[in-house]
Amino acid sequence: MANSRHMVNFAVPRRFITTFKKDCKETFFPDDPFRKFRHDRPLQKFKKTVQYFIPVFEWLPAYNFRLLRYDLLAGITITTLAIPQGISYAKLADLPPIIGLYSSFVPPFIYALFGSSKNLAVGTVAACSLLLHETLGAAVSSKDDPTLYLHLIFTSTFFTGIFQTALGFSRLGILVDFLSHSTITGFMGGTAIIICLQQLKGLLGLKHFTTDTDVVSVIKAVFRYKDECKWQSVVAGLVFLCFLQTARYVRQRKPKLFWVSAISPMAVVVAGCLYAYFGKGEQHGIAIVGDLKKGLNPISIHYLNFDSRYLPVTIRAGVVTGLIAMVEGIAIGRSFAIIKNEQVDGNKEIIAFGFMNIVGSFTSCYLTTGPFSKTAVNVSSGCKSAMSNVVQGACMMLTLLFLAPVFSYTPLVALAAIITSAMLGLINYEEMYHLFQVDKFDFLICMAAFFGVSFKSMDVGLLLSVGLSLLRALLYVARPAPCKLGKLPETSLYRDAEQYPETTSLEGILVIQLGSPIYFANCTYIRERILRYIYEENDASQTEVEHLLLDLSGVSSTDMSGIETFIELGRVLKGKNIKLGIVNPRIEVLEKMTLAKFVNVIGKQAFHLSVEEAIQYCRFTLDDTRKPTAEPSFRNDDAA
Amino acid sequence: MANSRHMVNFAVPRRFITTFKKDCKETFFPDDPFRKFRHDRPLQKFKKTVQYFIPVFEWLPAYNFRLLRYDLLAGITITTLAIPQGISYAKLADLPPIIGLYSSFVPPFIYALFGSSKNLAVGTVAACSLLLHETLGAAVSSKDDPTLYLHLIFTSTFFTGIFQTALGFSRLGILVDFLSHSTITGFMGGTAIIICLQQLKGLLGLKHFTTDTDVVSVIKAVFRYKDECKWQSVVAGLVFLCFLQTARYVRQRKPKLFWVSAISPMAVVVAGCLYAYFGKGEQHGIAIVGDLKKGLNPISIHYLNFDSRYLPVTIRAGVVTGLIAMVEGIAIGRSFAIIKNEQVDGNKEIIAFGFMNIVGSFTSCYLTTGPFSKTAVNVSSGCKSAMSNVVQGACMMLTLLFLAPVFSYTPLVALAAIITSAMLGLINYEEMYHLFQVDKFDFLICMAAFFGVSFKSMDVGLLLSVGLSLLRALLYVARPAPCKLGKLPETSLYRDAEQYPETTSLEGILVIQLGSPIYFANCTYIRERILRYIYEENDASQTEVEHLLLDLSGVSSTDMSGIETFIELGRVLKGKNIKLGIVNPRIEVLEKMTLAKFVNVIGKQAFHLSVEEAIQYCRFTLDDTRKPTAEPSFRNDDAA
């Protein structure tokens, strides 16, 4: 027996401070961001630390003209998208359209300084715009008191910034992990549905509409005001929409023609403006944006409103939209980083978003993040660094200084078509079907978000879906799926008896593999399940179980309740004349077993390094005379 | 190579309905309660089903006179405890003292019918009595409108019953598992502190006191009303307390003399009554209970108050106290069942508690469960079955019919001494210290409950502690502690390199063991941590990692995000020219990998049954000419 030289390592338990430090590191710094410069000299270290916190110092010195050419093209392309999107999403939040343009000027510069992603394009997002309107609109009507409403929007953007910065500095980017991919898919899909429905107002040219966002209210509103419908608007809307969808289809078929899709919204806006200006569209029922003044962002820091009446609603709006914006930004940033084989530090990204929103709230911008559509266009236009955001900001500055009034002729129907087309791309049918095929519970989580958002409201859908995800996480935790191991013939491997039906069970010895941490939430279950395994084993075979071996290789940690379960289990088994053996306990589990004196209670000889070794030990102690069958199988085993 | 005959089992994934049924069974019926009579004939099955749901039919036919002798003694002993405790705890809830006696008459009979524990003694509990007063007292003053207050108490008891029954029938006893042992220890300790402080009123003979329960308010109140203090009361209180503590000490030293401690509260009451009656104690500043009418429980079903004004508070009080009472009852029931090697079905117990409280609320009883102290006395008096509860009920009936007025002379100070003595026993210093030694986080959870309850309020303490427990559960889930495996020299075992420093690492091959389920909450962490392992390995050794093996033996399940992480990881590794291998995936994980086409992407040859086999496969594919060192170690390995 080659293994006999090695024993389970009963070293003295590590000190609390050691394990505590290690746990903190794993919890908050799993990617070990300071790894690279731990061994550097002070000056070098300082330089690298500054570079770490302000990434622009890292990439700018190595930046060159060749890269700038790529970024210039990408920056101009995303600006052509930023103008129509900015105006549209500001309308979605019921804000003056110019605020949407302001929001694509200042924040990109801030992101270029602090952001760590090379692919992200900064801008406003549809879902958060609508959610801001839904939340703040409930406190202050954007129609009756637009100034107060605007100030509350700035205030909630400020709180978003503070919240994001605080999360990032306390390394709580881990929170983002609790929004699962299924939740995001469902939430995006549901949001796309309700945003598309909101566009019916613009597409049909209605004057009145509902402020509710759920499917039922919107459809009711369309039927109520159907007489206001303008056929000119419908025709124009359909033409624009067909054009945009065709451009999208072209990109899908020929990825090289991505620019067709990227500039198509701008083309629609320009066409719309020309028609409205020269064709006197307004007289034919085509409403326009109107009122876009020249000039850069005015300072808005003195408009922040901390009135205690509105504080709860602005903080809530800031935190919720901040969280969603953050998830969208990090998710898209990570996706492209994975494709391009780069690393993105989630917590640093959150800090960059936070700074961006704080500065934004001082300069008449509202909530910005890294939107899916803009970032995708940025990547396919060939961006190489955050410089494309600088280009975007610069182009937007020129637009604000010279071109803004031109866009005041943009027809609302063009904006509605642009939003609808963008949103239709966000409903990911294939992904939902894929979820249904692979994991029904994930599909349920996705559908909860989808239907919750479309039929109730965005917060309800999100909460429902996150609640289900957490419930599932707790169920995973509460029901950790133990399994009975059997021996694969002619090997020394022990594997799940259900998964490998060819395994043979061992007379009088029951081997159970436990997975996942054992602690308060699952210890009662584990005790009852193990006792049931014993009953079932006794029912199935002629010989009674005399040894129970627990394979703890997969148990990464445990707590006091878990240890007490082992102690109780030992006592119960003693009453049944069954000996308990522990196989391959991990370091943290063994430490706690030692501290709680469990090792002393069952004795060190009950701990084994492998199932094979444990079974050999059990066979020696089994009464050979009473069990004549044990002898040959033991020999057989030794030969393996 | 003996293993070569066996392969990872790529069987067709099981149908959804099969896995769904299995998951439901593991979640709601882990103990498989119907196992015993699944194969019986219909009539037999019906009989056993009735016996299962109404356990009295199971044990009563086999009951005999010999067992009755034990239960008679136990029943009488717990009645002597039930009378003083009933009166005291009713005072704690600011109810007429007779309600406390009523509550030990009807519920024990109901429990004897439906309860599955042989050890539990039914009665009222201090913590819930105080909590009822704290919650309902905030809505209706027990001083100003005692009738309404009493009716609300009955109503909340009714809701407790409904809530418990519903939980039991929907097999949600799993909820109890989420209250960890540490939370219960801290909560009990904190409650004991505040209940003891409440007794200062009785012990000092004060007339005025605060209605707040937290330490600060109570100490302030004692100083404010210190002039009302009666020295006679203080002396009597100290004498009683010394006597009770001595009796408790005697029991601890000589367990055979348990009855000294068990009947000591009754002795205190009798002594107090005698002094109050013959010594005219009331004239010397010793207040008495007063007003205990003869007669059995009046019907109270028509007093249940479903007024919508009070509904929220009664439901809340009913649910919260019901949950705490349930946890206490199940915890104590399980503890003794484990000691005596019996099984207790948590869900059946909850149903029995529920019935007990519903019937109780119809018959002038308030919340009952299985209290720690009474159950412990019941066991040490030698109870054999639920018959001891029947005896308790019968004795209480006789008391109510004939003796009740006698107890109206009980001095309040005697009751205060009894409660204080009982509560001092609930502060478990040793357990707290033990928690501190073994698991610091468990200690924190315990202290959160302890200080939360003593310095704020009972709900706050409980919520704080449960919140921390859940946070910990989620952290376990979010940070699943992967480890790097090394080879134990001269064996074919691969173990945690940190735990077994003698292990050797393998040139160009990195083996990572993942534990616990992999899913949305931890998949980002796992991806980043694995990449960090690769960097660290590349930094530490001269040769680059060429093969990454993931040992998934301990990964019991996964979800869509987990699968996507594997797919992404495969892509990232491909970019780095590292080959990914999967070792021993469990059935559920492999099924999802197959459904998500991950198996097709990396190919079936990348799946291995054991680390040993995987490493041999990797060694064959490693370029031998470039790595002259690989050859000898491979030979060495083959020989092991």
TrEMBL record, chains A, B:
It comes from the Eukaryota. InterPro entries: S04_transporter_CS (IPR018045), SLC26A/SulP_dom (IPR011547), SLC26A/SulP_fam (IPR001902), STAS_dom (IPR002645), STAS_dom_sf (IPR036513). One of its GO terms (cellular component) is membrane. Keywords: Membrane, Sulfate transport, Symport, Transmembrane, Transmembrane helix, Transport. The chain crosses the membrane at residues 70-89, 148-167, 179-200, 257-278, 313-338, 350-369, 406-426, 438-455. Residues 499-618 form the STAS domain. GO terms for molecular function: secondary active sulfate transmembrane transporter activity; symporter activity. The keyword Acetylation does not apply. The keyword Transmembrane applies. It is found in: Membrane. It is a multi-pass membrane protein. This is Sulfate transporter 3.1. It comes from Hibiscus syriacus (Rose of Sharon).
